[in-house]
Specification:
Number of strands: 0
Distance between the termini: 23 Å
Radius of gyration: 25 Å
Largest sheet: none
Oligomer: single chain
Structural class: mainly alpha
Shape: elongated
Number of helices: 16
């Protein structure tokens, strides 16, 4: 029943501190947002190029057309290959589109480049986010050891980075380092007590079904519409002899959901096996259940 959910930062949606780093905002607004949408600009002076780069980064916050952001950033990058702004924009946009290889390249370039004095603040304020985003892309491609190093860097830069704790916990869980993963999820909850995803991920480190059920109940209390958590809780209760919640899911039209169908198979299969077990099988099962403190 244990499934992991990705946090917002695992789909790379945040720009830490970027708003306060976009200077000359009135001039940027006078240029107009159609610059990003339509790719129209005049790269005549260094100051105009710099304003466009900063506006490009700001556009990432609300953009739904990341292909346009990428197109604009690539053209700006030709004009200023060592600017941190287009690399930041490309790293974020590519990651949102699931292009992990290109996202990794531009995140690394952002980290490598020594910015000019006026851009040092922007880089400093976005280092933790970039380290986290780079780690998520590496983890997705299976480079767990490299990803772990970047998660650690992100958390050294920002000790209150709840999403990075959550993501690092998932990586540790993948490495079967459950005690460390649990610490990360608990820390994420301490920082953001209302983050239901941290509770969900925490349940995967539970030592028994009762503990898992209790944590999932806490998860649902934070987000009652979290379908995976609701399905899983209903399944746990059904497996423990209370099918009411699971039957309600079936009655309300969720019977064709892949997860619900998978879960439904488990108690049905268990009942089928119990009905067809031999006397020797029953003696063996009852002995095991008594050792666990269960019934027969």
């Amino acid at each position: 029943f244990f499934f992991k959910q990705m946090t917002a930062y695992e789909i790379l949606s945040g720009l830490v501190g970027s708003e306060m780093c976009i200077r000359d905002i009135s001039l940027i607004e006078s240029i107009g947002s159609d610059v990003i949408r339509n790719g129209k600009w005049a790269l005549g002076s260094a100051s105009v190029k710099m304003l466009l780069m900063k506006m490009l980064v700001k556009a990432l916050v609300s953009s739904s057309n990341f292909e346009a952001v990428i197109s604009t950033a690539k053209e700006l990058l030709e004009e200023a290959p060592d600017s941190i702004y287009p690399h930041y924009a490309l790293g974020t946009a590519f990651s949102k589109l699931g292009d992990n290889e290109n996202a990794i390249y531009h995140c690394r370039r952002f980290l490598e480049i020594v910015p000019i004095k006026g851009d040092a603040k922007f880089k400093a304020e976005n280092l933790a986010t970039t380290q986290n985003n780079l780690a998520v892309c590496l983890k997705t491609l299976g480079f767990l050891d490299q990803a772990e190093g970047h998660f650690k860097e992100a958390l050294e830069l920002d000790t209150e980075f709840a999403a990075a704790y959550n993501n690092y916990g998932n990586l540790l869980n993948d490495k079967a380092r459950l005690a460390e993963a649990r610490e990360c999820f608990v820390r994420a909850i301490e920082i953001k007590p209302e983050d239901h995803i941290a509770y969900w991920n925490l349940h995967s480190t539970s030592q028994n079904a009762a503990e898992a059920q209790s944590i999932i109940e806490a998860c649902i209390s934070k987000s009652p519409t979290d379908e995976i958590a609701v399905f899983t809780l209903a399944a746990l209760r059904a497996f423990n002899g209370d099918p009411h919640g699971f039957n309600e899911l079936l009655n309300y039209g969720f019977e064709d959901e892949p997860l619900v169908r998978s879960i439904a198979w488990i108690p049905v299969s268990y009942t089928h096996l119990r009905a067809h077990e031999t006397r020797e099988d029953r003696v063996c099962r009852v002995g095991v259940e008594k050792k666990k403190g269960g019934g027969g």
